[in-house]
């Protein structure tokens, strides 16, 4: 154990982080990236479905999906399944962890108590910064609202804020932790996620492309299979406009910057291309010296709308060169299936979001973190 953590205190050897990690997104990944800076090894506890239903409401992803998604994040060394919802000193000792790290928001039990109170009292708690502008609650809200405001111009954000605010059962106060805000990407954030190394001359470069919206277990499984074809995996991320052109409706749910960070957080990925062309051209293949182009055959999108792109075979050049391969990810999960889960259980998730906001707002009022309107 050596060096100082971001908070200026000594680093630990094994350090603990825990959570639901439902609909794992780049905000979760950023918290885990920061947590890893506090110690040599990061141990992540993931709550089971029963615990989440009791304290928050129904999870979008089941526990097995969530365990796999957290294990795939490149800063995670070990995953502890069935982690208790309330973090205790006993848990830290059981897994030989010096302390736990959590974001600077609050996590509450079903009866409104701070889940980290015990470890805070025993000085076994450290804090990192929460990633503003994204949360599972917010992503669920985007799907329920069925708007495009998450990837339109800034002047429309107020309408999104007002509509999302109406989901709250308390019309005089909002939680300072669960609220609609706009994620502001910076080069620093992207560099913190990026591997930052070019391929070696001897590396076999593999290329895949797609929207990778609401990054899920199907995406992760596909990228793991693709990486098996070489040494260095480049992922082309389609622009918001391209995805919306062939998918229509409010797609993509996440902006390109959000989708890029989500993909960069995972172990198989070495590099991404922002706004990659829909068609994989000779320019792309030559510039990156691509030796294999991989496509999955499970995630055939049934919701593609009629548009000029549908008449293009994006893999034509790769097929011509004999470097095109198809793989079976082994997962039937798709972005559309996630959206269907949310829409089909709309009332349950709206109720979940309202309850979470209300509990947090009550605590925030008690702590004088928000001003109540008269």
TrEMBL record:
Domain named Cytidyltransferase-like: residues: 16-140, 208-296
EC identifiers of the protein: 2.7.7.14
| Keyword Lipid metabolism included in the entry's annotation | yes
Question: What is the uppermost EC class here?
Answer: transferase
- NCBIfam families assigned: cyt_tran_rel
The UniProt keywords, alphabetically, are: Lipid biosynthesis, Lipid metabolism, Nucleotidyltransferase, Phospholipid biosynthesis, Phospholipid metabolism, Transferase
GO CC terms of this entry: cytoplasm
Protein's name according to its UniProt entry:
ethanolamine-phosphate cytidylyltransferase
**What superkingdom does the record give?**
Eukaryota
Pathway as given in its UniProt record: Phospholipid metabolism; phosphatidylethanolamine biosynthesis; phosphatidylethanolamine from ethanolamine: step 2/3; Lipid metabolism
Organism of origin: Caenorhabditis brenneri
Family (UniProt): Belongs to the cytidylyltransferase family.
Instruction: Provide any one GO MF term from the record.
Output: ethanolamine-phosphate cytidylyltransferase activity
GO biological process, any: phosphatidylethanolamine biosynthetic process
Q: What's one Pfam family the UniProt record gives for this protein?
A: CTP_transf_like
């Amino acid at each position: 154990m050596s060096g100082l953590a971001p908070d200026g205190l000594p680093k630990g050897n094994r350090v603990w982080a825990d959570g639901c990690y439902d609909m794992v997104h780049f905000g979760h990944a950023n918290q885990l990236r920061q947590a890893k800076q506090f110690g040599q090894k990061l141990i992540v506890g993931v709550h089971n479905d029963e615990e989440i239903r009791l304290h928050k409401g129904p999870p979008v992803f089941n526990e097995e999906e969530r365990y796999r998604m957290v294990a795939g994040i490149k800063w995670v060394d070990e995953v502890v399944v069935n982690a208790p919802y309330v973090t205790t000193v006993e848990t830290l000792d059981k897994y030989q962890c010096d302390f736990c790290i959590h974001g600077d928001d609050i996590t509450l039990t079903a009866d409104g108590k701070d889940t980290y109170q015990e470890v805070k009292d025993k000085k076994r708690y450290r804090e990192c910064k929460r990633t503003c502008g994204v949360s599972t609650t917010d992503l669920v809200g985007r799907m329920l609202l069925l708007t495009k405001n998450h990837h339109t111009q800034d002047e429309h954000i107020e309408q999104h804020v007002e509509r999302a605010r109406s989901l709250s059962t308390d019309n005089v106060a909002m939680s300072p932790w669960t609220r609609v805000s706009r994620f502001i990407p910076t080069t620093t954030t992207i560099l913190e996620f990026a591997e930052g190394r070019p391929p070696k001359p001897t590396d076999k470069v593999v290329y895949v492309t797609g929207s990778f919206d609401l990054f899920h277990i199907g995406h992760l499984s596909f990228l793991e299979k693709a990486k098996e074809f070489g040494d260095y995996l480049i992922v082309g991320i389609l622009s918001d406009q391209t995805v919306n052109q062939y998918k229509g409706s409010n797609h993509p749910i996440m902006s390109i910057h959000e989708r890029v960070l989500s993909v960069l957080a995972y172990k198989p990925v070495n590099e991404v291309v922002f706004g990659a062309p829909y068609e994989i051209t000779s320019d792309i293949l030559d510039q990156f010296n691509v030796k294999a182009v991989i496509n999955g055959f499970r995630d055939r999108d049934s919701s593609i709308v009629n548009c000029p792109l549908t008449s293009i075979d994006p893999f034509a050049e790769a097929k011509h060169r004999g470097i095109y391969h198809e793989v079976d990810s082994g997962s039937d999960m798709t972005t559309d299936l996630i959206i269907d889960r949310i829409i089909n259980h709309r009332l349950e998730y709206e109720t979940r979001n309202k309850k979470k906001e209300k509990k947090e707002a009550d605590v925030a009022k008690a702590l004088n973190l928000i001003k109540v309107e008269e």
